[in-house]
Amino acid sequence: MGSAQIAVVPLQSSALPFAAPAPAGPRESGSPSEANRMPGCGRCKDAAALDFEFTFAYQPIVRLSTRSVYAHEALVRGPNGESAASVLAQVNDDTRYSFDQACRVQAIRGAAALGMQEFLSINFLPNAVYQPKACIQSTFEAARTYGFPIERIIFEVTEGEQVQDRPHLVNIFREYSRFGFRTAIDDFGAGYAGLSLLSEYQPDIVKIDMELVRDVDRNLPKQAIVRGILSMCQALDVHVLAEGIETIAERDFLRDAGVDLMQGYFFCKPAFKALGRIDPAAFD
Predict the structure, then answer these.
(1) What pTM did the predictor assign?
(2) What CATH class does 8-21+35-283 carry?
(3) In 10 A of CB 6, how many CB atoms?
(4) Which of 41, 49, 160, 224 is deepest in the core (most CB within 10 A)?
């Protein structure tokens, strides 16, 4: 079991700032502009400022049919490459909103600085979004400031996220889609609510949890579940992405089953403040 060799395009600047810039003020409305006609609910004013730093690693998502990188997922890291867990452990109820907003801005800024031409996938915290139209303003402002097209941004939420209000999450997804962003459900199959969530909202992408991917080539129950997900998503016009690919056998089984989008160490590990490049042999 091994992964393909990669090269990385490094981010030359020092650690990115960890505070999200304030929105430039209300704009008009419609797609980006429509969001800005919506007055804020004011809850963001109670959010505490962050007292820790973080940055990002970017992990490629590949499209097998074109032998190319489809997107890069922004994965939070400490300023010196510390784990995501070490950063997330510092987030609490008071700083959740500030952290979520800062992640969006910083991921976009980093992607633009690295010259990313593919999609950028950003994880968001639905419990930190109070009003989608209001809370999205800093994202629009960051996209404008750093010249990153909003139509190349994917917002994803993990299926295992402890969402306090399911209708609220569905509303967030629908608003984000209306404003031109793409959406994804991450870790599908890992939580308890995946099917019911999918029945209420159909994202652009469903990411099959890596536990279903691991050794799928020799596990009949996993194969049956994966084929079921593929059949269901095909009927719903939802793209399927398999994450956590580590072996040729996993890649080949999923490819033969009909999965075109993949992510995992077999192709490329997350590149710290850089864009990973795929060894062409990983597609063979």
Answers:
(1) 0.84
(2) alpha beta
(3) 17
(4) 160
